[in-house]
Amino acid sequence: MTRSQKMADYASKVIGSWAFISFQTAFIVIWLCFNIYGFIKGWDPYPFILLNLSLSILSAYAAPIILMSQNRDAEHDRVRTINDLATDRKALREIQEIQKTLNRLERKFDKINSNTATH
Q1: Domain spans of the chain?
Q2: pLDDT digits (tens, 9 = 90+) for 64-85
Q3: Considering the entire predicted model, what is its pTM?
Q4: 119: helix, strand or coil
Q5: What is the dihedral of CA 18, 23, 29, 31, to 10 degrees?
């Protein structure tokens, strides 16, 4: 994996975790409380345009990072599927060869039994 792929996977893992959701929820609640009650003289008064901007920026970066990680996972799945198909085809050929061998042995056994039964 390239460095950017590793970073995308890590970021996707963090963003997709309950810890991140909990942190983001707490951050938003604290932001709203400070601004509604004016503890810090409300630097972002209602309708919380600065909060909206920061969440939009977060979303603008999070979505492509998650998509990069999903694209890499899809590529891994595609390669895995191709390998599985090759394995299945090889197993099918081997089973067919075993079946042919069993059929030959069965005919040979039947031939031997029919010769001994007539004598």
Answers
A1: 3-118
A2: 888 888 888 898 899 999 999 9
A3: 0.56
A4: coil
A5: -150
* Alpha-carbon gap, residue 117 to 111, rounded angstroms: 10
- List, in order, residues 6 or more apart from 20 with CB less than 8 Å away: 14
CA atoms within 13 A on the CB side of 82: 5
Which residue type occupies 61?
Y
Q: What is the DSSP string of 24-39?
A: HHHHHHHHHHHHHHTT
| Structural contact between residues 15 and 24, judged by C-beta atoms closer than 8 angstroms | no
The Cα-based distances of 44 to 23, 31, 117 in angstroms read 20, 9, 101
Amino acid at 74: A
